[in-house]
Amino acid sequence: MCGNPRDRFAELVGRPPEEAQFFWTGGPIEVAEGTYFASMFSGVTAFETPEGLVLVDTGLARLAPGLAALLRQKTAAPVHTVIYTHGHVDHAFGLAPFLLPGQAPPRIVGHRRMLARFARYAETPRHNAHLNARQFDGRASSAERDEFHVFGYPAHPPNVLYDDALELEVGGVHFSLWHAEGETDDHTWVHCPERGVLCPGDLFIWGVPNAGNPQKAQRYPWSWAAALREMAGLAPHTMCPGHGGPVVGDAALVGRMLGETAEFLELIVARTLAAMENGSPPHVDIVRTVELPRSSSPWLAPVYDEAEFIVRTVVRHYGGWYSGRPSELKPAPRDALARTVAELCGGADQLVSRARELATAGELALACHLADYALEAAPGEPAVKAAVAEIYRQRALGESSLMAVNLYRSAAAYAIEGRAFA
Question: Which end of the chain is less packed: N or C, by CB atoms within 10 Å?
Answer without folding.
Answer: C
